[in-house]
Amino acid sequence: MSKLRGISRVHMIGIGGIGMSALAQYLADHGVRVTGSDREPSPVTELLEKKGIRVLLTQGPENVPLDAEMVVYSEAVWADNPERIRAKELGIEERSYFEMLGFISLEKRTVAVAGTHGKTTTTSMLARILHDAGASPTAIVGSLVRDFGSNYLPGKSDWLVVEACEYRRDFLTLQPEVLVVTNIELDHTDYYKSLADVQNAFRALMEKVPPNGMIVTDTSSITIAPLLEGLQARVVDYTKEAGYSTRFPGEFNRMNARAATAAARIVMPEIPEDTLRSALGAFEGTWRRFEYKGKTKQGADVYDDYAHHPTAVAKTLIELRKKTDKKVFVAFHPHLYSRTRDLLDDFARAFTGADKVLVAPIYAAREPDDGSVSNQILADRIKWNGVDASAGTFEEIQRFLETTPKEGDIVMTMGAGDIYKVADALVA
């Protein structure tokens, strides 16, 4: 019997979050009445409304239904949130997004896709392959997937394909039968104090895979190989996959496809080669991953990408540079003071593929500004590394990009915040 039986109404705080919104759709699909709140509209909240899930764009105690059996909250929502306070007053059970995901994972055969980079694309590719092969998986993805028109794919089988985030060791709530680890680097420096700290978290996740399960990873990676000794699960090296063509550029996307292929072969050992080839060849990609938006009034091509770690920035710009022999303009929205400060030199070197970098104010998210870093400091450091860079507001960046880049030039908005809104405005 499904553990969701007996839960008829759930309220979700921060429902516009990319994981929360996918979970909301899953719950609604399983007969749960779902309401939620967030601070502002987005493509995700619009999607939820279209699916009949009510989204309140204010946050207050009156939003919490008196008959809710559970309140689920985003990790960005603190205990002093008025709706969480109200839930406590009413005696309503609370779960974080990741606790709820782990709750669902208990009754599924879970394929968890983890890693510093590439997990969203790999999760999406794997879901598309298994869907096309008839495995009917349920998938919860950290972005809107064009192939599904959503960040959620409903399935009829007991397979759950889910993107697993390492922040605060949240992925340890999951119960993976198959675990994909794309790569491991230092990130989330507001929580992890060293690369070894990150590796310890991934090792703990690997140890959760049962003896009859499998771990799909790059066994030659210097940050992964030391973690593989003495595991109870079998390890499969995804880099040995021959690989299939996709619409998306770069060796990093080819590696994502290999990882997805290796995991698909575990779920469906007899999967036809033609299915792998056609699914990956037809894969349309996800929101904010090397996404082409259109042209500015001056004729420059506009792209948008979620890259917010130095490695992802550098690799994305290598591929972007291949698309023009003219100028590349990047509007970058740094995400978190801690990440920007702790990886400052890496960020400064990551933009060598650009002709001009415009740095927006740092997206604070969950952090206070301690004054140790700013968009001006990052712009100055990029300049010191030989790339023209300046700091500015969203409005200043948009005005510059509306007039300066010409036909044949490329503009890319980049970052985990809402810099994509500049790209949307440029092509409107």
Radius of gyration: 21 Å
- Overall CATH architecture of the largest domain: 3-Layer(aba) Sandwich
Global outline: globular
Mean pLDDT: 95
Strand order of the largest sheet: 8-7-9-6-10-11-12
Biggest sheet architecture: 7 strands, mixed
- Which percent range fits the helix content? 25-40%
In percent terms, what proportion of residues is strand? 15-25%
Q: Please report the number of helical segments.
A: 14
Using DSSP, what is the number of strands?
18
Counting helices, strands and paired strands, the structural category is: alpha/beta
Low-confidence stretches: none
Total domain count: 3
User: Considering the protein shown, what is the CATH homologous superfamily of the largest domain?
Assistant: Mur-like, catalytic domain
Identify the CATH class of the largest domain: Alpha Beta
Separation of termini?
A: 49 Å
Write the CATH fold name of the largest domain. Answer: UDP-N-acetylmuramoyl-L-alanine:D-glutamate ligase
Topology:
Elements: E1 9-13, H1 18-29, E2 33-37, H2 43-50, E3 54-56, E4 70-73, H3 82-90, E5 93-96, H4 97-105, E6 109-114, H5 119-132, E7 138-145, E8 150-153, E9 159-163, E10 176-181, H6 195-208, E11 214-217, E12 234-237, H7 251-267, H8 273-282, E13 291-295, E14 301-305, H9 310-321, E15 328-333, H10 337-342, H11 344-350, E16 356-359, H12 375-384, E17 388-391, H13 394-403, E18 410-415, H14 420-427
Parallel strand pairs: 1-2, 1-4, 2-3, 4-5, 6-9, 6-10, 7-9, 10-11, 11-12, 14-18, 15-16, 15-18, 16-17
Antiparallel strand pairs: 7-8, 13-14
Helix pairs in contact: 5-7, 5-8, 9-11, 11-12, 13-14
